[in-house]
Design goal:
Rossmann fold; alpha/beta; nucleotide-binding; 2 domains; 10 strands; ATPase associated with various cellular activities AAA_5; 277 residues; two-stranded antiparallel sheet; 39% helix
């Protein structure tokens, strides 16, 4: 399981999978070995890559493989340090302290995954600094505590460099506190079996979908802000596997999510026709 929180003040119980229940992940290189080495040496990890390329699945897989509970925090514009650490709440007429997901992970020795960390408010990175060096502590001013991370705690963060701008980026002083892994979309020989396994569509029928996805990815920065994620290819293949016509599935799961511009859609549909004949 994978505990996810994206609401202010929410802190759900972590999901805890065993290695046998690990979500399927097909390694693209030595990323699993690097992650394991970082975990064993109590080093934080930063995952860089485009949306939908497998970063979250990778973390879930590694947490299960390592036998650690996992807290996943979907970062957003309003996410503050207090949302991660915790706050006082009224319960039954009393004011009680409720740990946030980061605090719970520190206490329990879990993995805390901050997805798209650059989307969070700036005070979040300040909180992370003492957890990403040899101190491995979390100061909680509200309770006058200074928590030392329990054995097994690991901080993992991710972001999409393609969306970086002057207002949303990680400072070099923050980036250099992490071991970094760069992710990209899988090569076709890896992506085809992944999509086939996740969707139930045969590899020979998945192959043209992956070929189309790579042609659309090549248009990033021209007509498209972002390329087709592996997630969207899986969605498309899933619809086809359930009996939907390929052209309708591609429109619904690959074209419409990419753009709202009518002219761009027409151009993309011409590309679909060229690939599928």
């Amino acid at each position: 399981m994978d505990g996810t929180t994206n609401l202010k003040g929410a802190a759900q119980a972590p999901f805890h999978l065993t290695q046998g229940d690990a979500p399927f992940y097909l390694p693209q290189g030595d990323e699993c070995a690097v992650f394991r080495a970082a975990f064993e040496n109590r080093l934080p990890v930063l995952l860089k890559g485009p949306t939908g390329c497998g970063k979250t699945r990778f973390v879930s897989h590694m947490a299960a493989t390592l036998g650690r509970p996992l807290y996943t925090v979907a970062c957003h514009d309003d996410l503050s340090a207090a949302d991660l650490i915790g706050r006082y709440l009224l319960k039954g007429g009393e004011t009680v302290w409720v740990d946030g997901p980061l605090t719970r992970a520190v206490r329990e020795g879990a993995i805390c995954y901050l997805d798209e960390v650059v989307e969070a408010r700036k005070d979040v990175t300040v909180v992370l600094h003492p957890l990403t060096d040899d101190r491995r502590i979390l100061p909680i001013d509200r309770t006058s505590e200074e928590l030392e991370a329990a054995p097994g705690f690991m901080l993992v963060a991710s972001y999409n460099p393609g969306y970086q701008n002057i207002l949303k980026t990680l400072k070099p002083s923050t980036r250099q506190r992490f071991v970094a892994l760069e992710f990209t979309f899988p090569r076709p020989e890896h992506e085809i079996p992944v999509v086939a396994r996740e969707s139930g569509l045969s590899e020979d029928r998945v192959q043209p979908l992956v070929r189309l996805a790579n042609k659309l990815r090549a248009m990033k920065g021209q007509d498209l802000e972002e390329g087709v994620s592996t997630r969207l290819v899986i969605y498309t293949a899933t619809l086809i596997a359930q009996g939907m016509a390929a052209d309708r599935a591609i429109l619904a799961a690959m074209i419409e999510p990419l753009t709202d511009d009518a002219d761009t859609k027409r151009g993309l549909l011409d590309l679909v026709a060229a690939v599928f004949g």
